[in-house]
Structures are given as C-alpha cells and as structure tokens.
C-alpha cells in the first residue's frame, strides 16, 4: 500500500483508494465498512470500505478473509495483496485520520469520537457512490448503538439496504476485507510515521500504543515537552495523555483569565467595546496599550 501522500502530510485526513473495477460500475455491489486504531493513544485511526459485485461475493469469500484482529501482520498483508491482485472485481478506499485531527475534533461542542467515526464512514460510502460504484447493500461494524447508527445511515442512503451489527467484521466477509485494508494501512502508517518534531535519538519502541500499556505510558512520559506538549503522533485529548500533561508540563496562566469574583462572559461585543461591568475594572490588553490603540465606540 502506497502511503507516500500521508508521509508528505500526516497532520489531517488522507484519503487513499484503489481504481474502481469496471464491473462495479455496472452491477449491484455489496460494501463493507470497518476501522482500525480507534482506541490507541498513539497514531492515526483508519476507516476503510471494501466492495465487490454481489455476483462475485463468493469469490471474495474464497480468499478466506477474516477479522483483521485474528490475523498476524504477515497474513493481513498477504490477504491485502491478494485483494489487489483481484482488482478486476474488488475495490477499496480508506481515510487515515491523524492523531492531531482526532484530538482537535474532540474539542468541538457535542462532537466525540463516535460522531467522527459516523461522519467518516458516511463520507466513504458517499465517495464510493460518487465514483460510480453501484452500491446496493452496506454492512457496517457498529460504533455505538447499532439500531441508532443503522437508522441514521438508512436515512442518509434511502436507496441502499443498510445493516449495522456488532462484530460485523466476523459475520460478513466484505466487512472482514475492509478491516484488513484498515489495519494494513494503520500498521504501515505507524511504522513509517514522519515526525515533524526534531526528536533526538527517537525511541520507536512505544509498545502497542494503547493507554494501558506500560511501555506506551513510559514513551509518553519520555517525549512530553514541558512547554509544547506531545509530538503530533500523540492523541493529546486522551485521558492518559492529559494526565501526563497535568503532571509533567508547565502550568499556564492567561493574562485575561477570569479570576476572583469577576462575572463570566457577557455579550461578545463587550470584549471589544467599553461597555458592561468589565469596562470599568479591566484595562485593555498590553498589546493595545503598547501601541496606543483604543476601542472603537462607533463604526
């Protein structure tokens, strides 16, 4: 799998895909959705789709695809290579979501990892449709409540039969194939991660990447900077990372933080105009004082 595009820029979302088999633009297709790397505190999360014509589903099953978690790395790579060889009827696409994107998304109001997962899966199904794939059935390994997720997808794609199940990567071969694509991509992304930070004598032995792994925790403690925090390889919104930051990093006091008995935020214009109770007690920020700038009372 060619991840050179990700290696050039691993700060956001990178989409990779195979060519669309001609038969998939002519015949009804089944499509599976799965992910890899949802739980780790290190590295990206990868969402993948795999699809093939309903008439060739038995050929996909004959590859003996299985849930990627039950396969060794070499077995996953062998099966992915086999799917690539069968590119005349098997297609795939995936989104690699960087740790930085995951963590900054978590800062949004009422937007969590489940929401990010749902939106990414929906986007990949839509991408297949936009590429001309004649999707008639979709099978998804659930995130959250299967019934709610299935209803949401069914409303989004009313002309497609949608099935969302727990353990779908075990139950449906096309989802197993998607899980293999996702896991192969994540393994390669982690192994070849390009650190934008200049880390001296980088230790690449960070364990499984999961928060409860002692080796992963030790790596996080070793590479936390007291001022700048973690490298972008780390999902800084994870509790494990936050706990280390609180203990190892320097505290920050904002000059205009609310302290004491000051009232909370008022109208947004009060931050720019001399109005409200804050105007009487709060001096302008030093930036404005040093430059002789005053607030405008009229435009």
TrEMBL record:
<feature type="domain" description="RNase H type-2">
    <location>
        <begin position="28"/>
        <end position="250"/>
    </location>
</feature>
<dbReference type="InterPro" id="IPR012337">
    <property type="entry name" value="RNaseH-like_sf"/>
</dbReference>
<dbReference type="InterPro" id="IPR023160">
    <property type="entry name" value="RNase_HII_hlx-loop-hlx_cap_dom"/>
</dbReference>
<keyword id="KW-0378">Hydrolase</keyword>
<comment type="similarity">
    <text>Belongs to the RNase HII family. Eukaryotic subfamily.</text>
</comment>
<dbReference type="GO" id="GO:0043137">
    <property type="term" value="P:DNA replication, removal of RNA primer"/>
</dbReference>
<feature type="binding site">
    <location>
        <position position="35"/>
    </location>
    <ligand>
        <name>a divalent metal cation</name>
    </ligand>
</feature>
<dbReference type="GO" id="GO:0046872">
    <property type="term" value="F:metal ion binding"/>
</dbReference>
<dbReference type="InterPro" id="IPR036397">
    <property type="entry name" value="RNaseH_sf"/>
</dbReference>
<keyword id="KW-0255">Endonuclease</keyword>
<comment type="function">
    <text>Catalytic subunit of RNase HII, an endonuclease that specifically degrades the RNA of RNA:DNA hybrids. Participates in DNA replication, possibly by mediating the removal of lagging-strand Okazaki fragment RNA primers during DNA replication. Mediates the excision of single ribonucleotides from DNA:RNA duplexes.</text>
</comment>
<comment type="subunit">
    <text>The RNase H2 complex is a heterotrimer composed of the catalytic subunit RNASEH2A and the non-catalytic subunits RNASEH2B and RNASEH2C.</text>
</comment>
<keyword id="KW-0540">Nuclease</keyword>
<dbReference type="GO" id="GO:0003723">
    <property type="term" value="F:RNA binding"/>
</dbReference>
<comment type="function">
    <text>Endonuclease that specifically degrades the RNA of RNA-DNA hybrids.</text>
</comment>
<protein>
    <recommendedName>
        <fullName>Ribonuclease</fullName>
        <ecNumber>3.1.26.4</ecNumber>
    </recommendedName>
</protein>
<feature type="binding site">
    <location>
        <position position="34"/>
    </location>
    <ligand>
        <name>a divalent metal cation</name>
    </ligand>
</feature>
<dbReference type="GO" id="GO:0006298">
    <property type="term" value="P:mismatch repair"/>
</dbReference>
<dbReference type="GO" id="GO:0032299">
    <property type="term" value="C:ribonuclease H2 complex"/>
</dbReference>
<dbReference type="InterPro" id="IPR001352">
    <property type="entry name" value="RNase_HII/HIII"/>
</dbReference>
<dbReference type="InterPro" id="IPR024567">
    <property type="entry name" value="RNase_HII/HIII_dom"/>
</dbReference>
<dbReference type="GO" id="GO:0004523">
    <property type="term" value="F:RNA-DNA hybrid ribonuclease activity"/>
</dbReference>
<keyword id="KW-0479">Metal-binding</keyword>
<dbReference type="Pfam" id="PF01351">
    <property type="entry name" value="RNase_HII"/>
</dbReference>
<feature type="binding site">
    <location>
        <position position="141"/>
    </location>
    <ligand>
        <name>a divalent metal cation</name>
    </ligand>
</feature>
<dbReference type="InterPro" id="IPR004649">
    <property type="entry name" value="RNase_H2_suA"/>
</dbReference>
């Amino acid at each position: 799998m060619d991840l050179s595009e990700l290696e050039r820029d691993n700060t956001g979302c990178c989409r990779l895909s195979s060519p669309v088999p001609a038969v998939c633009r002519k015949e009804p297709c089944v499509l599976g959705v799965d992910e890899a790397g949802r739980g780790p505190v290190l590295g990206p999360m990868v969402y993948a789709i795999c699809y093939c014509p309903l008439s060739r589903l038995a050929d996909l099953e004959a590859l003996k695809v299985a849930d990627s978690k039950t396969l060794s790395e070499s077995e996953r790579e062998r099966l992915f290579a086999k799917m690539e060889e069968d590119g005349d009827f098997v297609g795939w696409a995936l989104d690699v979501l960087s740790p930085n994107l995951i963590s900054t998304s978590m800062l949004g109001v009422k937007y969590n990892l489940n929401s990010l997962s749902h939106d990414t899966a929906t986007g990949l199904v839509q991408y297949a449709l936009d590429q001309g794939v004649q999707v008639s059935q979709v099978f998804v390994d659930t995130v959250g409540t299967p019934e709610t997720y299935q209803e949401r997808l069914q409303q989004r794609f009313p002309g497609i039969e949608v099935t969302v199940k727990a353990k779908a990567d075990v139950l449906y071969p096309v989802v197993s194939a998607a899980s293999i694509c996702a896991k192969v991509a994540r393994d390669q992304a982690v192994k070849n991660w390009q650190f934008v930070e200049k880390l001296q004598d980088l230790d690449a032995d960070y364990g499984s990447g999961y928060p409860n792994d002692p080796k992963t925790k030790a790596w996080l403690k070793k590479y936390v900077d007291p001022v700048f925090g973690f490298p972008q390889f780390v999902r800084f919104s994870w509790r494990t990372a936050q706990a280390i930051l609180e203990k190892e990093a320097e505290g920050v006091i904002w000059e205009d933080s609310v302290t004491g008995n000051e009232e909370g935020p008022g109208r947004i214009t009060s931050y720019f105009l001399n109005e409200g109770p804050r105007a009487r007690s709060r001096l302008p920020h030093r930036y404005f004082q040093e430059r002789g700038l005053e607030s405008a009372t009229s435009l």
